[in-house]
Write a structure and sequence with these properties.
Chain lengths: 343, 343
DNA sequence: GGTTAGCACTCACCCTAGCAGAGTGCTAAC
DNA sequence: GTTAGCACTCTGCTAGGGTGAGTGCTAACC
């Protein structure tokens, strides 16, 4: 049975109040602060109903009410109003992200900082999986007798470089020939597709040439480290400002979990391919340890392909209205910037 | 007046005990745990003397004693025994640092992780100041009509790359000519020395060639971002395990300070040029906010030049014997690896 | 003169009891 | 269906007393 309009108003009021104060909310407070035109006693009756239906809970007998995970879920889905970023905040995003970034990786890092700063919660960002990007340029640069630098530029401008050892010194013309061959064959190819089959084909083509075969080995070695997905964390310090984490042990547990890149990656990517904003509330989260946390994530994309994720982690009592707006805005900006960079 | 041998023994015993237990140490404990051959009463008398001389202090009347900053200083300078790393630890350092690092920067980052893990305190590392490294290779790679990638390899293998916009599309031969000119003129030159004078000279040489002049502008732009020194922090989580930081506000203050890269940099570098191990205890630290912390730092070097610093930050009640050994060992390993890489 | 036992004293820490305050559920009246 | 009144519950705070670790001092001892 759907909630009456008045119940919705009360649930919204309690959620708002609790998000601001972190204190259980009583019927008097609601009656005083939100003019619903009814007395505390009436609100008390409604609250009892809402609790019975699972939207609210009581930390202990005769305390005020706080929203349950189900309550937050309903609030997020049906009750909250979108928050507007103000002029200064928009300007800050624009200038920070559009500033000079000598490397694309820096842009992603910067996004995490911005996200943490604006939301005042902890920001999580997964850097693009480069193995799904198209190769734009691939070049060997001889350094000295035994070392060459393999530089890989992947759309829309991510640069990876690896120093690799060679078994013999390469001549300038040889390097030129290799570079030429590589770029002719690999321009525009998705890095992940280079795997065994394509390398095999190329090996066929150059069968008779020891030089090229060796170059292919170098390439393979360089591509190997491409799959590593980087996770950026920022603003863990904001956890301490939340009263629910005033107990130092809780923060310790959380930080220990977040130290594990794999976990953070899973956290953000169990929704891979799923674009748009996504909110995970408390117990909805599969990873225990985040039972009292909520996560708001969004993807950033290039040409319709999900490149990576940005997210904000905070207590379930998080300011969803604001966080959703911020995450959405930054993800959109990132997508836009990456697309522009590829032009 | 110098301390008697017995006073030294007692000071050492108290320091050891306090480092282990974090509890003020009483005369009975000392008599029981360390066989000095005297009764608690005698020890009490000696402790009273040590307090009068400023080596010990009492948190409150009729509690045990704890070392003062002066006490720690004396301990560090004259009393402590060097700690030996065990087999497993040595193997771990070797394998972690000597493992595959596609980029030198990763090596530095890895050192911070290792330092934090082994010491169980917070690790601080300043990455090498590249502007003092010799240029080994410098190369433009055309990406598309408007962008080229400037790749800079600096001894002993640090790679920096920047995408720069050009005002016009460059021909293949032009790029080759530029690369050739650059490497001929700049090989082995210290990045910092490229500044205005050398660029000016080069500009003279190519005065009549618009192409080269433009290339020089690109180079200047790329070099600009070289001065930025990166600071790595790791193991901040270990702060929480220290009883002196069980008060969440203290940790918050500390983390807020550490968030500021400039401060961390200053912290490590007020000893720049000064090689060897350095220990800063509590109030010896110029930055207030670190009044209850100690810092153990060492430089890592290349060819006798200080490249950067590694350090460990913990409470004044830190295990100096162990930390000093670890910091020394890792700094030495880093120096060695960097030197080897340059061969 | 240095060392030791004995003793009174101090102070943090822990536990308990009591009190105030916020908020509830229930009942009865509107 | 709504509201006022009231008894009840539970937390958080404060004050008081007991405990224990450790000291400084004094006097006796070698």
């Amino acid at each position: 049975m759907p909630l009456s309009e008045r119940k919705k108003q009360i649930l919204r009021a309690i959620t708002h109040d609790y998000i601001n104060s972190a204190e259980p909310v009583g019927s008097r407070t609601i009656a005083r602060r939100y003019s619903l035109g009814v007395s505390p006693a009436t609100i008390r009756n409604e609250m009892a109903d809402l609790e019975e239906d699972g939207y609210l809970e009581q930390p202990y007998t005769s305390a005020g009410r706080i929203p349950s995970d189900k309550g937050y879920r309903f609030y997020v889905d049906a009750l909250m109003d979108p928050h507007k970023l103000n002029e200064a905040e928009i300007r800050q995003v624009q200038s920070t992200l559009r500033g000079e970034h000598s490397q694309m990786g820096e842009l992603v890092h910067e996004s995490a900082r911005l996200l943490a700063f604006l939301s005042q919660y902890t920001a999580l960002v997964v850097a693009p999986n480069l193995s799904h990007g198209a190769i734009r340029r691939l070049q060997l640069i001889p350094l000295d007798e035994w070392n060459v630098l393999l530089v890989l530029v992947i759309d829309p401008g991510f640069v990876q470089s690896h120093i690799v050892e060679t078994t013999r010194s390469l001549q300038v013309e040889e390097v030129a020939r290799i570079n030429d061959f590589f770029n002719r064959r690999l321009f525009g190819v998705m890095a992940a597709d280079i795997s065994s089959t394509l390398l095999g084909e190329m090996r066929e083509e150059v069968r008779d040439e020891a030089l090229m075969a060796e170059a292919l080995v170098l390439l393979g070695r360089g591509l190997g480290s491409l799959n590593k997905e980087q996770v950026f964390l920022d603003g863990t310090i904001h956890l301490f400002n939340q009263p629910e984490f005033k107990d130092i042990d809780k923060v310790k547990v959380l930080l220990n979990i977040l130290d594990n890149e794999k976990v953070v990656w899973d956290l953000l990517n169990d929704t891979l391919g799923n674009s748009g904003i996504r909110i995970t509330i408390g117990s909805e989260n599969p990873h225990e340890g985040f039972q009292h946390c909520s996560l708001v994530t969004a993807s950033y994309e290039l040409d319709g392909h999900v490149l990576g994720k940005v997210g904000v982690l905070g207590p379930t009592r998080m300011n969803y209205e604001r966080v959703v707006t911020i995450v959405e805005y930054i993800a959109a900006n990132l997508s836009e910037l990456l697309t522009d960079a590829g032009r």
